[in-house]
Amino acid sequence: METIIPEYEIIGNPKLPTGSEPEANKSMPNNNLLEPSTRSTNNRYSAPAPANKAQSFQPTIQPAYQPPPNYKIQGPIMKNEAPARIIPIAALNPYQGRWAIKARVTAKGDLRRYNNARGDGKVFSFDLLDSDGGEIRVTCFNAVVDRFYNVIEVGKVYLISKGSLKPAQKNFNHLKNEWEIFLESNSTVELCPDEDGSIPRQQFSFRPITEIESAENNSILDVIGIVISVNPSVPILRKNGMETQRRILNLKDASGKSVELTLWGDFCNKEGQKLQEMVDSGLFPVLAVKAGKVNDFNGKSIGTISSTQLFIDPDCPEAQGLRAWFESGGRNTASISISKELMPGGSKNEIRKTLTQIKDEGLGRSDKPDWVTAKATVVFIKTDNFCYTACPLMIGDRQCNKKVTQSGNKRWLCDRCNQEFEECDYRYLLQVQIQDHTGLTWVTAFQEAGEEILGCSAKEMYLLKYELQDDTRFGEIIRSRLFHQYLFRLKIKEELYGDEQRVKITVVKVDKVNYSAESRYLLDMVTKNFPNRKQF
């Protein structure tokens, strides 16, 4: 066992009890109390007298048992109100009754609301760092949220005590601590007004990009690199039916590798927009990523999560060394992407294929679908049945989206939900022909992909064609979207139509070609395929 705290202060004012030692005369047995019947004049039953005198020891007799006094209730019992001793975060454990920690808030999560069998609730968390480098997460629920959410500020130092420690939930907590603090109604959080320079403002554990290639999927790590490209922010519809923003950028470092970083939600409009403006103006900033999540689909990439923090041009030795490397020649050094390619806007690590390769390699004919990326041009769009009327009702946290029909009372009916409603949604079901330098093929584009291709909503196109019957305007929009080049993220799967097996190609995502990023992709391909090329 390792001693964590060698000394501890005395609690209260203890004193030795008086009269605890028995007196000698009380310890001696009274021999005269022996009954006469027990004495014998027969020497056979008497102990022989000792030949010489020896020292006699008087035995110590324990005092007779006395029952404890019966205390009467005369007032409240005094508590130890002395302030708890400040200990390192690393010394915290659930078996300590009184503790206090002094630490800096390095991250603060958003206020989240939830609903379960116990009812509605709210929760938020924040991360702490102390002067010894110890980190721990603190979580507050419901009424405790009301007390501390507006009190906690990132970068400030606090004195925290009277919380309970529970095992950390590693699915959501990436800190290197097996415990997590849960604040309660009697917990105290006191702001330390004087700045404590011994506590760092942030703690990093950077991994070179080349090591990310061998990192486990879903692992959380820190990475730092030069931002070499930033793509526009695009809206994405999550599986739960909620829309969010996504932005893709790429980092490179001195290891000779680059990696794709996906920004989600507010990161796109805050740090993401600032990074795009810097790169567009010719600057290549250093970006430090605290707590990024590894994705290993067809390579390795990094994505932001709720606890991720981004630091642009941070003041740390790693950033200074990276900047010096970049300015002294690293700017012109080719890097190999561990994300397979630098696809603008791609959420995962794509594999590039030409349209002819899709057919020649028999993609989509296995049990699982194939996911590829193709750079192609839209050459034709079918205008018959380009969209369908969809159910707008929510099933749990997702929209139904099943096809609805209009009943006799002009209300829309969903067979799945078995409900009628006044208004319905309109969702794209586009049949598009795309072409590249090797051939052409038909693809199906649903809602988000259809909006990206046509540049307007399905409801607008439906009203033009069927209600306003403005075929001229409708035709102008269709023709204006032809012969535009995109990067198509495709899902290829063989499906059964009647008695015939057909390969269906579905557009999962459409992105406009970013020619700067596309040029870097081509240069990377040259580096990979011709490593011994001559330098000109």
UniProtKB/TrEMBL annotation:
<dbReference type="InterPro" id="IPR004365">
    <property type="entry name" value="NA-bd_OB_tRNA"/>
</dbReference>
<feature type="domain" description="Replication factor A C-terminal">
    <location>
        <begin position="371"/>
        <end position="522"/>
    </location>
</feature>
<comment type="function">
    <text>Component of the replication protein A complex (RPA) required for DNA recombination, repair and replication. The activity of RPA is mediated by single-stranded DNA binding and protein interactions. Probably involved in repair of double-strand DNA breaks (DSBs) induced by genotoxic stresses.</text>
</comment>
<keyword id="KW-0863">Zinc-finger</keyword>
<keyword id="KW-0479">Metal-binding</keyword>
<feature type="compositionally biased region" description="Polar residues">
    <location>
        <begin position="27"/>
        <end position="45"/>
    </location>
</feature>
<keyword id="KW-0539">Nucleus</keyword>
<feature type="domain" description="OB">
    <location>
        <begin position="101"/>
        <end position="181"/>
    </location>
</feature>
<dbReference type="InterPro" id="IPR013955">
    <property type="entry name" value="Rep_factor-A_C"/>
</dbReference>
<dbReference type="Pfam" id="PF16900">
    <property type="entry name" value="REPA_OB_2"/>
</dbReference>
<dbReference type="GO" id="GO:0003677">
    <property type="term" value="F:DNA binding"/>
</dbReference>
<protein>
    <recommendedName>
        <fullName>Replication protein A subunit</fullName>
    </recommendedName>
</protein>
<dbReference type="Pfam" id="PF08646">
    <property type="entry name" value="Rep_fac-A_C"/>
</dbReference>
<dbReference type="InterPro" id="IPR012340">
    <property type="entry name" value="NA-bd_OB-fold"/>
</dbReference>
<dbReference type="InterPro" id="IPR004591">
    <property type="entry name" value="Rfa1"/>
</dbReference>
<comment type="similarity">
    <text>Belongs to the replication factor A protein 1 family.</text>
</comment>
<comment type="subunit">
    <text>Heterotrimer of RPA1, RPA2 and RPA3 (canonical replication protein A complex).</text>
</comment>
<dbReference type="InterPro" id="IPR047192">
    <property type="entry name" value="Euk_RPA1_DBD_C"/>
</dbReference>
<keyword id="KW-0235">DNA replication</keyword>
<dbReference type="Pfam" id="PF01336">
    <property type="entry name" value="tRNA_anti-codon"/>
</dbReference>
<keyword id="KW-0862">Zinc</keyword>
<feature type="region of interest" description="Disordered">
    <location>
        <begin position="12"/>
        <end position="59"/>
    </location>
</feature>
<keyword id="KW-0238">DNA-binding</keyword>
<feature type="domain" description="Replication protein A OB">
    <location>
        <begin position="209"/>
        <end position="313"/>
    </location>
</feature>
<dbReference type="InterPro" id="IPR031657">
    <property type="entry name" value="REPA_OB_2"/>
</dbReference>
